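Support case: oxa(dethia)-CoA complex. Customer-provided input:
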Amino acid sequence: MVRGVRIAGVGSYAPDRILSNEDLARLVDTNDEWITTRTGMKRRHIAAADQATSDLAIEAGRRALARAGLSVGDIDAFVVATVTPDYPFPATACLVANGLGAPGKPAFDISIACSGFVYGLTVASGLVRSGVFSRVMLIGAESLSKITNYRDRSTCVLFGDGAGAVILEASERNCFLGSSLGADGSNPEVLFQPAGGSRYPASAQTVENSRHYIHMAGKEVFKFAVSKMVDSSLTALAEANLTPDDMAYLIPHQANLRIIDSATKYLKVDPEKVVVNIQEYGNTSSASIPLALAELDAGGKLKQDDVVVFVAFGGGLSWGAVAWRWSA
Ligand code: UT7
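Agent response - structure generated as follows:
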């Protein structure tokens, strides 16, 4: 059975604590001018010491349920995209389902870094369209501050925390128009958290050498990001015989304003159609796209039948885009 899928509700949550460029300049040798011109970032939201990723995800999930006018009992399965799970295992989705009041329902995580939301949207939409589930809650949630080294100026200015949730439900109208995903694991060191897994298990030495934090070759990531964003957006649109001219909104992963601007230029999209909130949240990995979507939805900007393209890239390396038709 192949049926349609739509987004029934969107919700997001970001912790209250703010880390500004000025705050960062007090921690490392940096300044507001460098951060603003090189990244577009001004502020990030940072989880409290006692807040883990599931706490952010649960709040976003509650808000998505409220927006959809549904209760948690209406959800058949829970999927969390994250690289900052509460624990290496069990899956954070299990904790989220339990926290929302749905113990016993299927729950699993997707780990594909900043591409998590677009991969998750493809997988969860497939589960709904194939008739396996009627409603799936998909949440992109991250507490990147917990794995950020606040002594490394090349990474600590970039990352923030937050969560965004969507509820996917079976529908007569199919809103999933196309998807293009990819990954290349030939050089994982370009963007990774070296220690704490099975290759470099946690030890006093890995901690001493700061190997539990995010490590990134920023320039290498930058180089591949723009072309992959452009190619995957065009391929996802082409699956539905659409072009960038048909797009009402492009919602890109918020990693760097310069990357977003270049992709906008190559795709020849009107910058007014490109959703940017990087100044407020920094890079929140798999949470960045649903955070931006929730803002757009809350602002009443999405109209029936608007074509929206979600596009991301990140650790793996990985990339992907989904073309979507908005249906309220
Ligand atoms: O979610 C996906 C994950 N990541 C990304 O998408 C990141 C992609 N890459 C980037 O966004 C950019 O490469 C960065 C923002 C990370 C860096 O910008 P850049 O223009 O590539 O700078 P750079 O690394 O070439 O560094 C230029 C200079 C260097 O100084 P020298 O060697 O020219 O003297 C750095 O040491 O800027 C210096 N620098 C800083 N200066 C002030 C690096 N970080 C900082 C800083 N404040 N925070």
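The first helix runs from residue 21 to 25.

Case will auto-close in a few days if no follow-up is received.
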